[in-house]
Write a structure and sequence with these properties.
globular, mainly alpha, 212 residues, single chain, 0% strand
């Protein structure tokens, strides 16, 4: 409640750019001009999607301590992606995902116990609630993170990070399809920019890699 969804979305949109910069410094991955152009174009597209193309929305933004905390999200994901690249030298994607889930569970258990929600409310979950839990654990965690690790392993941390820009795009599209939310022309235009940026960043990076 310390920040808005708009601010949070814009801050998280810096994730791929931050990952690329940190990968170049830590993993010594070369960021090609194609990748840089793709990152910036996708970032612009995310901005258009989130703000619905309104400059007034940008001008009205105000930042607070919640936004400072949100800065930890792209930093944490960048570190996770870069560390994952190193972990994959020892473990396959499925094993790496299992270890990440186990460590994450152990770290969250004390916080859940302190909050008093460790077991409260579990018995009151409906069928749809359990389906949501299964979807989050199986698709959102196991399948999603295994595929993410495989992408990092094959593409590298900086190129794989470009795909994070597709998250707000899919969020907008699925909200329109499933929740019948309105889809603005500006959001479609921003989505096209995101897809173009991802395409340039990955295909261009692949051509640059093959030429070496």
């Amino acid at each position: 409640f310390w920040t808005s969804a708009m601010n949070g979305s814009l801050i998280v949109a810096f994730n791929p750019l931050l990952t690329a910069v940190m990968s170049a410094w830590w993993l010594e991955e070369r960021v090609s001009p194609y990748q840089a152009a793709g990152l910036l174009l996708a970032l612009l597209g995310v901005g258009v999607v989130v703000t619905r193309g309104s400059i007034g929305v940008i001008r009205a933004l105000s930042f607070n301590r919640g936004d400072v905390l949100m800065l930890g999200a792209p930093l944490a994901w960048a570190l996770y992606t870069i560390a994952g690249k190193k972990v994959l030298r020892t473990f396959p994607p499925l094993v790496a995902t299992a270890y990440a889930a186990l460590i994450g569970t152990l770290l969250l258990l004390p916080a859940a116990a302190l909050e008093g929600s460790l077991l409260s409310g579990v018995h009151r979950l409906t069928v749809y609630g359990w389906i949501a839990v299964l979807q989050l654990s199986l698709l959102g965690t196991v399948v999603g993170f295994v595929w993410w690790y495989e992408g990092v392993e094959r593409l590298g941390a900086s190129r794989a990070a470009v795909f994070v820009n597709l998250v707000p795009l899919f969020g907008v599209l699925l909200a329109a399809l499933i929740l019948s939310e309105s889809l603005a022309v500006s959001q479609l235009a921003g989505g096209i920019l995101v897809v173009l940026g991802v395409g340039i960043g990955t295909l261009g990076g692949r051509e640059d890699h093959n030429s070496r």
